[in-house]
């Protein structure tokens, strides 16, 4: 599975940004206290953590402590430290950097989750309003669900297929799992399976059709919450189709 570009850039920043900062601060090492220099490096760790992930933040903390030792403690250009106070500062820089990096990543994760939850809720409410408006057909609801699935699952494409089931493509189930030939597929480790993935539209126990999902090649699968929302959206489309079938007869 391909590593996202953002994560790659964050790891690179975690390794290089503290080194570059410690190098730039070298002219100040005799005029600024070591504690203040360490605090400046902590700021770099926070910035990397806010941009990247936990691994990048931890790497930045380790890098900051190492280059603080190398450039700003005697003997210079050595990883040996003579002064006890410098040892304490380096250790505190590492510990504080690790703690702050994890807090920064956690805060960014919580903000992202809150934003995604609000977006998923609006998708469900928007589709429900359309289905209950009385002015939209079931085809309109299906079209809306297709668009929402592309956004929610970050797909390259999505189409809806009426009628009987043909073939046995990988299937996204209502519980958010993906099955391939009857076995649960490990999305986190293996990524999306190859080819189209079906998401069945079923309401009141009656099959109405299926959405065929086409992920972006090499893309990271969405979290479980997004997959559960996708299943709920498919159920709304199925309910709209079922209402039409009850009132106007089965689709030919």
UniProtKB/TrEMBL annotation:
One of the GO BP terms on file: phosphorelay signal transduction system
The protein's name: DUF4118 domain-containing protein
Keywords: ATP-binding, Kinase, Membrane, Nucleotide-binding, Phosphoprotein, Transferase, Transmembrane, Transmembrane helix, Two-component regulatory system
UniProt domain Sensor protein KdpD transmembrane: residue ranges: 12-114
One Gene Ontology term, aspect cellular component: membrane
Pfam families: DUF4118
Subcellular location: Membrane
Transmembrane parts of this sequence: 6-25, 37-67, 87-105
Bilayer disposition of the protein: Multi-pass membrane protein
Annotated GO MF terms: ATP binding; kinase activity
InterPro entries: KdpD_sf, KdpD_TM
């Amino acid at each position: 599975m391909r590593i996202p570009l953002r994560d790659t850039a964050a790891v690179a920043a975690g390794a290089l940004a503290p080194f570059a900062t410690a190098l730039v601060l070298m002219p100040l090492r005799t005029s600024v206290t070591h504690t203040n220099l360490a605090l400046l490096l902590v700021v770099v760790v926070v910035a990397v953590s806010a941009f990247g992930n936990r691994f990048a933040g931890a790497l930045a903390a380790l890098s900051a402590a190492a280059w603080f030792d190398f450039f700003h403690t005697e003997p210079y250009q050595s990883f040996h430290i003579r002064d006890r106070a410098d040892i304490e500062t380096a250790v505190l820089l590492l510990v504080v950097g690790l703690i702050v990096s994890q807090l920064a990543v956690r805060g960014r994760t919580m903000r992202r989750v809150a934003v995604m939850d609000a977006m998923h809720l609006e998708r469900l409410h928007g589709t429900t309003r359309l289905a209950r408006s009385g002015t939209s057909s079931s085809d309109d609801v299906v079209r809306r669900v297709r668009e929402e699935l592309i956004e929610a699952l970050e797909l390259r494409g999505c189409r809806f297929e009426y009628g009987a089931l043909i073939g046995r493509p990988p299937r996204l189930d209502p519980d958010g799992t993906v099955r391939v030939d009857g076995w649960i597929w490990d999305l986190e480790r293996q990524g999306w399976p190859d080819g189209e993935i079906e998401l069945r539209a079923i309401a009141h126990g009656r099959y109405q059709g299926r959405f065929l999902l086409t992920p972006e090649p090499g893309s990271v699968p969405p979290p479980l919450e997004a997959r559960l929302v996708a299943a709920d959206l498919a159920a709304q489309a199925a309910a709209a189709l079922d209402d039409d079938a009850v009132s106007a007869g089965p689709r030919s």
